[in-house]
Amino acid sequence: MQTEMQKIEKEIEKKQKSFEEMTKTFKQSLKDRGVKSFCVEYSGSGDSGQIDEIGIVPEKLQKKTILSKNYRYWDEKKMQFVKEDKEIPLSAYVEDYCYDLLEHNNSGWEINDGQSGEISWNSEDNNIEHKYTQYYTEHNEFEEEF
Question: 57: domain range?
């Protein structure tokens, strides 16, 4: 019988493998479409966060579409998130991946004082690089008596 901790560890391992496979597919999809590199800037604080800028090289590919497997979006009529295979702009594909990366590796990046950063990739070294700054409020309290 598994302990709760073993169940949690198994779930974390499963999510990690899933994310690694998603990343591998994502990078290959970009290469297959002739993307040389991308750079995404984001920021978040006070319980909200957003992608601020997306740059794709060559720029002409920014509006090109790609089939996104299990594309997740909010359906206003059903009042819930829906997943389906859908053609979306390449820039939206990159944006969605970056949100997934942030959720997977930096969950809570948009909470309280927040975090900002840059996510980039180039086809030559095929590595996704994430540079970021986490913000926090420091508080020192003192009491003196004379």
Answer: 28-128
